[in-house]
Amino acid sequence: MKRAKKLLFVGPCKRYVRGYMHQDLDLLKKHFSVKVVNVCFDVRDLKGTLMTPVRLIAGVIWADVLFCWAANRDTFVAVAVSQLFNKKTVVAVGGADVTAIPELGYGAALRKTAHFFQMAVLHRAVKVLPDSKDAEKGALDLLNNSAKVTLIYLGIDVEKFHPSGTKVDKVITVGVVSRSNLKRKGLETFVKSAAYLPNVEFLLIGDFLDDSINYLRSIASRNIKFTGFVTESELVKYYQQAKVYVQVSAHEAFGASLAEAMASGCVPVVTDKGAIPEVVGNTGIYVPYGDPEATAAGVLKALKSDTGKLARQRIDNCFSSSKREVALWKTITEL
To answer: Do residues 192 and 219 touch, judged by C-beta distance below 8 A?
Structure first.
């Protein structure tokens, strides 16, 4: 079986590249000769927009296989170009590209144009790689082709994200502060829950994407802090300090921040939505979605528990980056 030696890694505009995408890039570089193209059609990046077609065509001609993250407009362009040159494309998916939650207005399938790009990418890719069983179900519902879909869980770098020092009674959550995330990621519930535990420090860690931060500040008690954007090294320290991590989302395709916190020894307080139970298993405390008082009660219970070691062990055993590395290598080389 011939091994693909040259791989084109197709990502979004640099400002939208997420940590798990960087990690996949690093993993793939261990086994393939890799070039990167950030597909960018954005009026705020005129140079990137003008250069995208040139870089993409040159990259496709050079590569044996394309690896893309998400089924959307940008990856549609990459897949279309790859077909012109008879090259195979692998697409990793999870989140809005394979999930629809009408009550939250979340999901590509809810918008006509986005749904067109979503389906075109999923059908034209030779392999679709969902990052959880929840995402796998969404992909299969859209494709009805199990041979094309292969579940590969996201991987967590357990060497980078690890416990260090003594935990303190600090409660954190991580998420971009935006109007859509107030409900979907439970940021509003998290902020409101702090008022029930006035002597405990709460931190919401994440960049401010729009003016929704003003609303959160207006409902916040004195014991909650909004950090704004933090570097990865700063984030690691927050994980290591905090005893409790809260993820009270309406949906998570995997929950990378949740898993990073667990790897760092945090006790998870979570809902049972999306892929969260897959990640947490029996190592966390489950609370109802959208219930600040119940969330606070769960946090109080977590502060008194000592299950952070079990949470760390679960991530190490089930979701380490080494497992994803082997699975990605095998899937791509078998093409």
So the answer is: yes
